[in-house]
């Protein structure tokens, strides 16, 4: 299919499914079935097998027609992490079952990876999954779980064999979050909100048909998710002066009385950093169009966190007393996070999480050093020992 043929297909779809008169959910379901959800996905799974870079044109044409979207901000983990992992590692039955309601937003997803004792060292997870006939029984605790209070399903990394080294005893599951054995508790953050949660699993059950990949192959599947997550956080293809640099640049332009030569110098340096990161993101997106993401996503996420934190700090300093104001401290559980919304104080506090979520900056530096630069790996005394024999 050529670009012109794709444009005609979209025009024909819109003619047959008028956005003004078609029910929103039915419109989204029909769009998925027509292959116009993720056009780079295979036919039958929301796509047409077209180049990934054409997706932007599809979104633009639907937006120009005032068509309803799938509210991507409310299901970032599902769209950005669960769906690519299911596509890459799932069975045809799993793809048919999960991709359509995920894309339409009928089923919200969260990510059950991090634990109190396995944050930076993700392979050290202790949540257990024990086989019981055609099901797995799961017990354990997860933490820092975005959208768990809204999710119907989660991607879960659990230990199924404690008798082998930590990376080899893990299995990846798709678990129902609405069952009685799942308890979600809010975690209030420095911003006052509770976008994160802790999740307690007590004899929760997962059918073996919802195991993603082979038993014991969870680390490989999880890395598919992590690479995609880091690209989603740090490697977006965006326009110039969007995001945090756009907010801080507007503050500078709108408040000439706040300017000083020293602040000007810092802003320009950060503007250059942000633009270099943006251009690198464009290049990374072009690479993604040719295949799966690699460790470059870790570098992009690392840059994103540093620049966002420095920019938010610069804005607070620039605004002086006004930058210390905080408009709202009510504990809410949002359905999405607006990194550039609200006031400067919120942006400053929320940016602190950028170097933690999606992989800490310290761990990402190790990944960049070892996998991209080829530097010697850190000594790991637990690498070849059975997980159950390692002191904790």
Plain-language structure description:
The structure is a single chain. The chain is an alpha+beta fold and 392 residues long. 41% of the residues lie in helices and 13% in strands. It has helices spanning 3-16, 24-33, 55-64, 76-89, 92-104, 218-234, 244-254, 261-288, 296-319, 344-351, 361-372, and strands at 109-112, 128-132, 135-142, 153-159, 170-176, 182-187, 196-207, 211-212. Strands 1-4-5-8 form a four-stranded mixed beta sheet. A hairpin with a 2-residue loop joins strand 2 (128-132) and strand 3 (135-142). The protein is globular. The model has no long low-confidence stretch (mean pLDDT 90).
Entry summary:
The protein has 392 residues and is of the alpha+beta class. It is built from 11 helices and 8 strands.
DSSP E strands, number: 8
End-to-end Cα distance, whole Å, is: 56 Å
The biggest beta sheet is recorded as: 4 strands, mixed
Structural class: alpha+beta
How many helices does DSSP assign? Answer: 11
**What sort of overall outline do the alpha carbons produce when their principal axes are compared?**
globular
Q: Note the run of SSEs as H and E.
A: HHHHHEEEEEEEEHHHHHH
Strand content: 5-15%
Helix percentage range? 40-55%
What spatial order of strands do you see in the largest sheet? Answer: 1-4-5-8
Instruction: Report the uncertain regions.
Output: none
Mean pLDDT: 90
Question: Over the alpha carbons, how many angstroms does the gyration radius reach?
Answer: 22 Å
């Amino acid at each position: 299919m050529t670009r012109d043929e794709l444009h005609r297909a979209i025009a024909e779809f819109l003619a047959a499914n008028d956005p003004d008169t078609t029910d929103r959910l039915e419109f989204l379901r029909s769009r998925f079935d027509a292959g116009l959800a993720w056009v780079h996905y295979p036919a039958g799974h929301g796509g047409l097998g077209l180049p990934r870079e054409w997706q932007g044109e599809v979104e633009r044409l639907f937006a120009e027609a005032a068509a309803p979207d799938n509210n991507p901000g409310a299901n970032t983990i599902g769209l950005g992490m669960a769906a690519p992992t299911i596509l890459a590692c799932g069975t045809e039955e799993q793809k048919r079952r999960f991709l359509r309601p995920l894309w339409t937003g009928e089923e919200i997803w969260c990510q059950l990876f991090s634990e109190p004792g396995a944050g930076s060292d993700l392979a050290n997870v202790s949540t257990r999954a024990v086989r019981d006939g055609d099901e797995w029984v799961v017990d354990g605790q997860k933490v820092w779980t975005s959208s768990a209070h809204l999710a119907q399903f989660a991607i879960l990394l659990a230990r199924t064999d404690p008798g082998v080294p930590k990376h080899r005893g893990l299995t990846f599951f798709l678990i129902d979050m609405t069952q009685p054995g799942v308890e979600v508790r809010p975690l209030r953050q420095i911003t006052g909100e509770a976008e994160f949660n802790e999740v307690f699993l007590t004899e929760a059950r997962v059918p073996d048909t919802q195991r993603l990949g082979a038993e014991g192959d969870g680390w490989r599947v999880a890395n598919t998710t992590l690479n995609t997550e880091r690209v989603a956080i740090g490697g977006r293809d965006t326009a110039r002066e969007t995001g945090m640099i756009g907010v801080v640049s507007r503050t500078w332009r709108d408040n000439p009385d706040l300017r000083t030569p020293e602040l000007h110098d810092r802003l320009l340096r950060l503007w250059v950093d942000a633009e270099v990161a943006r251009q690198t993101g464009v290049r990374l997106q072009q690479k993604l169009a040719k295949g799966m993401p690699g460790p470059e996503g870790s570098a992009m996420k690392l840059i994103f966190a540093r620049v966002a934190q420095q920019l938010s700090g610069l804005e607070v300093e620039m605004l002086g007393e006004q930058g210390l104001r905080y408009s709202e401290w009510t504990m809410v559980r949002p359905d999405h996070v607006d990194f550039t919304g609200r006031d400067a104080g919120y942006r400053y506090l929320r940016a602190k999480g950028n170097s933690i979520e999606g992989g800490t900056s310290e761990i990402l530096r190790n990944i960049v050093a070892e996998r991209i630069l080829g530097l010697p790996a850190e000594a790991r005394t637990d690498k070849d020992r059975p997980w159950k024999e390692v002191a904790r």
